[in-house]
Task: inverse folding
């Protein structure tokens, strides 16, 4: 029997994946109220949600997932029956230079949400409940030239970021095994698409090419990633939420393995034409830099279980997705400028003290 949520708490909903999920979910489920809890750190941008900010089925609360009293109040007052937990520090380079905030947000924040959700679920205020942990394929570590991550692959994280996400995943598992709490957990490959913060590879490439700035490529550029369009990810999360058995773990992948350097070359070539530059000009911006510490060589997701069990598979080809993504960034240069300058943070700090 399908689970039909009536009141969802989305954590980190002002971020890249969270905001895309909110857009998709509200469009598909106008009868379900969505509360977005976000601390509005540097990667949280409410401009991502302008088109839904006045929607009757949406509300925003500015706050920290480590604030147990705030989380408890939202769960109770909104009669939350679903927590979809996107909130996380997610940039690997930042985790290497400053791991503490990753442990606080990704591990302690998840534990706070789990504990307050457990109390709420056990109170009987809502007839059914789900806690949905959104995770990453990086918890599995690295692959050789062959093979794929499955749901049975042992966790072997190699960066402070992925270690903090693996710790959160283990807490979610423990709450299901210990308390019987109805949890769900997905682990996705690299996302791309609209509203992606420009420190990540694809939006960084697009922005730097537009401004004829150097394109830094780690090591030899032969690291492999599987790329998933963020809108496909949003639909996958909704599918798992409504149809999966509590306690389940699913991988979500785009069936799109690319060497990093091939992604860079592709974006360069597509933007040559769009910007009216001679063929090959943008490739001249490529600059190889010292490799990242502990840089995982290859990620590749086997998402066949999700297809076999629940019928989901990606709708986007990479060719379609990357072309749409480039066009979105070119058409939304004001958004890019506000993000890269930091202007969005000052504006929304003044506009939103938090509302529910």
Result:
């Amino acid at each position: 029997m399908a689970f039909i949520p009536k009141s969802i708490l989305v954590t980190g909903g002002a971020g890249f994946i969270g905001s895309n999920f909110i857009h998709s979910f509200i469009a598909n489920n106008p009868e379900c109220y969505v509360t977005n809890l976000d601390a509005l750190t540097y990667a949280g941008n409410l401009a991502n949600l302008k088109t839904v900010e006045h929607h009757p089925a949406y509300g925003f609360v500015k706050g920290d997932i480590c604030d147990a009293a705030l989380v408890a109040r939202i769960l109770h007052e909104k009669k939350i029956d679903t927590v979809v937990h996107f909130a996380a520090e997610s940039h690997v380079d930042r985790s290497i230079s400053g791991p503490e905030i990753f442990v606080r947000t990704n591990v302690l924040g998840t534990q706070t949400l789990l504990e307050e959700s457990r109390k709420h679920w056990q109170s009987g205020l809502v007839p059914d409940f789900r806690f949905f942990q959104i995770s990453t394929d990086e918890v599995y570590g690295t692959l050789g030239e062959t093979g794929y991550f499955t749901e049975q692959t042992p966790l072997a994280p190699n960066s402070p970021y992925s270690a903090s996400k693996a710790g959160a995943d283990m807490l979610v598992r423990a709450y299901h095994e210990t308390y019987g709490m109805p949890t769900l957990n997905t682990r996705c490959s690299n996302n791309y698409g609209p509203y992606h913060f420009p420190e990540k590879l694809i939006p960084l490439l697009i922005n730097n090419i537009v401004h004829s700035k150097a394109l830094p490529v780690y090591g030899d550029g032969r690291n492999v990633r599987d790329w998933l369009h963020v809108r496909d990810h949003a639909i996958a999360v909704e599918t798992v939420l409504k149809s999966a058995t509590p306690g389940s773990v699913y991988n979500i992948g785009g069936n799109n393995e690319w060497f990093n350097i091939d992604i860079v070359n592709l974006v360069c070539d597509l933007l040559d034409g769009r910007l009216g530059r001679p063929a090959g000009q943008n490739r001249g911006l490529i600059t190889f830099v010292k490799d990242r510490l502990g840089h995982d060589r290859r990620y590749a997701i086997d998402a066949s279980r999700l297809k076999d069990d629940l019928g989901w598979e990606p709708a986007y080809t990479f060719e379609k997705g990357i072309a749409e993504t480039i066009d979105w960034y070119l058409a939304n240069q004001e958004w890019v400028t506000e993000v890269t300058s930091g202007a969005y943070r000052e504006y929304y700090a003044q506009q939103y003290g938090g509302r529910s």
Notes: The mean pLDDT is 94. The longest strand covers residues 130-136. DSSP finds twelve helices and twelve strands in the chain.
